[in-house]
Write a structure and sequence with these properties.
By secondary structure, the chain is an alpha+beta fold. It contains six helices and eleven strands. It has three domains: 42 residues; 71 residues, no CATH class; 63 residues, no CATH class. A hairpin with a 2-residue loop joins strand 9 and strand 10. InterPro entries: DUF1642 (IPR012865).
């Protein structure tokens, strides 16, 4: 008998009357699979689980946006979705119908609404084909570097240690040029490619 699933496979099952997506953490000789199911580990007969649907491909900035709010204060996936959609609609209200800039998170959500919901609820992968090189704007190089951050709707230079993961500190070349144009600055001179930083 061949194995139907292997450790690490993403699968779906019905658990406590709802469809759950999880990862196989152990397979026994009878091809039964153990899943973590967040709250507790549980064994399932292999005929009671199926391959999980493919993960949604999202651009890097959308993945960063979702991950920055996932798991905050123990919310369920449904509560996280509600929170993220509420933020999205607040952004729409603040723009007074002017729409989102092309390539922004809001623009992607507007054009891929169903995929956004699936990504938040079931997971996602970063679309490597669309990934542009990312840069950090390093103003002062020392142990606690001073970087350019996008904090809400403002652009500020702060110490890297001040960022608790909520401020954007990596930018594409197009984003840097747009910041320079809007603010009359020349931050592109301080751009360091992220691969070089690591």
């Amino acid at each position: 008998m061949t194995k139907k699933f292997n450790v690490g496979d993403r699968v779906q099952c019905i658990f406590e009357n709802e469809v759950r997506i999880d990862t196989v953490i152990e397979v026994n000789v009878d091809n039964d699979c153990k899943l973590a199911l967040t709250e507790r580990e549980k064994w399932f007969f292999c005929q009671d689980i199926a391959p999980a649907p493919a993960l949604v491909l999202v651009p890097q900035n959308v993945g960063d946006y979702i991950s920055s709010w996932k798991g905050v204060s123990g919310r369920t996936s449904e509560q996280e979705l509600y929170f993220l959609l509420e933020r999205h609609y607040e952004d729409i209200d603040m723009r007074n119908g002017n729409g989102f800039e092309e390539g922004s998170v809001g623009d992607w959500i507007q054009r891929n609404f169903e995929q956004f919901i699936i990504a938040v609820l079931n997971g996602y992968e970063i679309d490597k084909t669309e990934t542009e090189p990312l840069y950090e704007i390093v103003i002062v190089r020392r142990d606690d570097r001073q970087l350019l951050f996008e904090i809400g709707y403002s652009i500020e230079v702060r110490n890297e240690s001040d960022n608790e993961g909520y401020w954007k500190q990596q930018f594409t070349e197009a984003e840097i040029l747009k910041i320079d144009k809007a603010n009359g600055t020349n931050y592109r001179l301080f751009a360091v490619r992220v691969e070089e930083v690591e």
